[in-house]
Design a protein that fits this description.
With 249 residues, the protein is of the alpha/beta class. It has 7 helices and 12 strands. It folds into 2 domains: 66 residues, Ribosomal Protein L25, Chain P (Beta Barrel); 168 residues, Alpha/beta knot (3-Layer(aba) Sandwich), CATH 3.40.1280.10. Strands 6, 7, 8, 9, 10, 11 and 12 form a 7-stranded parallel β-sheet that branches.
């Protein structure tokens, strides 16, 4: 498999491209790439290009683009994930990218064990962005998922719905009378422009939070008879959606 490198720059054929320090370090020190080796560049907006390395140095790599690929259709699958422990949240974000998510919204819920002040939230978001870049490079995901800033769940549910467009909004709720698979298979369920999945924290939603989501138009759906951990539930739901409507069919 040809290595993939993140490079949000112009990909015109026969142009020479300089990687940033982080991507250059990854290419030289981690992947051990040398002059003449092929790579695939991706810009996070659906564009890719095949390129050849023409120069390497410890912190510098220059490449020549040889073929640009047109961007594929962008998927519209969004995960609103309540905070979990650091490693679990990292894992959820990484695997959500692998499953083709196009937007990730981290949320602070009433029962979230992890509490982040604004400064820590900003640092964590930078870290999550690096996780996303690495996951895109590894998985072949050409669209860089948009990562929202951390928001309180109640405020986020109460805000205007305009930025969610023509969407289907599903809250994952143990004990829901209908499964997510049954909801998607129902002929009365239209395929939306965007499908949102809302996943609670380790201890689940507070009753008031679930009630607020339902009042705001979210549809409750379950994931079978077993109780899934927060880092499993959102990913299982993404897999169900991709298997029913997406690129796992």
């Amino acid at each position: 498999m040809i290595p993939r490198l993140f490079a949000p720059v112009d990909y015109a054929v026969d142009t020479v491209i300089a990687l940033d320090a982080a991507s250059a370090h990854h290419a030289v020190r981690v992947l051990r790439l040398g002059v003449g080796e092929p790579v695939v560049l991706f810009d996070g907006r659906g564009r890719t290009a095949r390129a050849l390395i023409v120069e390497t140095a410890p912190c510098r790599v220059r490449l020549e683009a040889v073929q640009e690929a047109p961007p594929p259709a962008r998927p519209r699958l969004a995960l609103a994930q309540c905070l979990s422990g650091a490693d679990r949240m990292d894992w959820t974000i990484e695997k959500a990218v692998e499953l083709g998510v196009s937007r990730i919204t981290p949320l602070q819920s009433r029962r979230s064990v992890v509490r982040l002040d604004p400064a820590r939230a900003a640092r964590r978001r930078e870290h999550w962005q690096r996780v996303i870049v690495a996951a895109c490079a590894q998985s072949g995901q050409d669209w860089m998922p948009h990562l929202d800033e951390l928001a309180p769940l109640g405020n986020w549910l109460a805000q205007a719905q305009g930025d969610r467009g023509a969407s289907l909004q599903v809250v994952l709720a143990p004990g829901a009378t209908r499964s997510l698979a049954a909801l998607l298979d129902d002929p009365a369920t239209p395929v939306p422009g965007t499908l949102w999945l809302l996943c609670g924290p380790e201890s689940g939603f507070a009753d008031e939070e679930l009630a607020q989501a339902l009042e705001a138009g979210w549809i409750a759906a379950g994931l079978g008879p077993r109780v899934l951990r927060t880092e499993t539930a959102g990913l299982a739901a993404l897999a169900v959606v991709q298997a029913r409507w997406g690129d796992l069919r």
